[in-house]
Amino acid sequence: MGLDTARHRASHRRRHRRRTARSHRVSTTSLDVAGPHLAALVEQLKKAEAIRSARWAEAFAAVPRHVFVPSWYEMETNDKGISVWRMQHPMHEGNLPKVYRDITLVTALDPSTAEKVDTDAWTGVPTSSSTLPSLMAGMLEDLHIQDGHRVLEVGTGTGYNAALLCTRLGEHLVHSIDIDPELVSAAQSRLAKIGYEPQIVPGDGQAGYPTGERFDRIIATCSVHRHLPAAWIEQTSPDGIIVADIALGIEGGLVRVSVDGDGRAFGHFTATSGRFMAARTDASTYPVQERAPYAAETETRPTTVTASDIRANYPFRLLLALELPDAEIVYNSADDGTMSLQFQRPDGTWARSPLAGDATVTYGGEADLWQTVEAAWQWWNEQGRPAHDRFGYAREPEGAARVWHIPTGRRWNL
């Protein structure tokens, strides 16, 4: 070994020891503050069967979530009757336990829609969050990570999930990317506070990691539309696994696929259910969708499926997304205050059923929209109301994707 090389390695070891000692003090202080709340969260996640292994229980018990969520927004109705996002801080009196609830914490709002309406309250559309811990735990378990695996996380967000991965694998095996450079910088700072320096870069995660290297596992904490991006397939090692949220319109869900040597991704929707904000190509805002004016009302009639049926059954909404790929669901408020669940298409066709009251549907435009909903309800019930993990997902090397009902083989091309 050359003298310069020996000096370099010795210097690196000294820097590592100093950083480890400094990080240990900060981490210990953070854990002391959060200790009882962390323990309670881990127990809750274990009871919910989101955490299913000792290694992930240890990771969640070792990462103080409040370090990664120095502030967040909670929805409330202000004294003027307006729904607003009220800013919260973990170290304010009584707030620390809130960070360790099993809930999603909104951490950023779209500046194009955000408007300050009070001292610490805004209206607006969320663009980033600290994910529901049980959802995160379920996805991490579904990755089936082994020691030595190199992992890419798409959607750094607060950095909390990257910290969990670092705790499980070591920082040198963890890579992450986020569209928002400010989020990347903030996450790096928070990770450093507890002693981690994973490889995090700003950029469009749908294009993969910029170095082009391959990973044993890819986990995405943002949703992609219908198809897993080609870059993710190309950057997954043969027999590697991707866990990601596929948006299908009306509904979507988490898929777990294995990638073979030919670039084919094959798997299924996972038993872990949950949704993420859509992947963005802009760092701070979402594009505005253009829609045609609503068609004139056609008629009101009885229906075999109600708004309550649809709201109560996530797997059925997933089926509807496959049957009605160009439709979306919104809530409609009539002049008399009646609230309805409304399906609508870009061409202005719509159909709605009230959240309470008679089993009726009112529609405008083509009648086939709600007829498709009723036919899907009948099929889903005839099949024994299959759960979402009874649906497979595949993406072929050329990019075509499909979903199928595993027991019967019924297929939908995306």
Content of β-strand: 25-35%
Q: Biggest β-sheet: count, sense, barrel?
A: 10 strands, mixed
| CATH fold node name of the largest domain | Rossmann fold
What is the fourth-level CATH superfamily of the largest domain?
A: Vaccinia Virus protein VP39
Given the structure, what is the number of helices? 11
Give the N-to-C terminal Cα separation: 57 Å
Question: At CATH's second level, what is the architecture of the largest domain?
Answer: 3-Layer(aba) Sandwich
- DSSP summary, beta strand count: 21
Share of helix among residues?
Answer: 25-40%
CATH class of the largest domain: Alpha Beta
* Class from helix and strand fractions: alpha+beta
Primary descriptors:
414 residues; alpha+beta; Rossmann fold; 2 domains; 11 helices; 29% strand; disordered N terminus; protein-L-isoaspartate (D-aspartate) O-methyltransferase activity; cytoplasm; methyltransferase; transferase
Walk me through the structure:
- One of its GO terms (biological process) is methylation.
- InterPro entries: PCMT (IPR000682), SAM-dependent_MTases_sf (IPR029063).
- Belongs to the methyltransferase superfamily. L-isoaspartyl/D-aspartyl protein methyltransferase family.
- The chain has 414 residues and is an alpha+beta fold.
- It has 2 domains: 1-288 and 408-414, Vaccinia Virus protein VP39 (Rossmann fold, 3-Layer(aba) Sandwich), CATH 3.40.50.150; 297-382.
- It is 32% helix and 29% strand.
- The strands form 4 sheets. It has a 10-stranded mixed sheet with strand order 9-8-7-10-11-12-13-19-20-21.
- Helix 1 (3-47) crosses helix 2, helix 2 (54-62) packs across helix 6 (160-169) and helix 10 packs across helix 11 (368-382).
- The longest helix is centred in the first third of the chain and has 45 residues, at 3-47.
- It starts with a helix and ends with a strand.
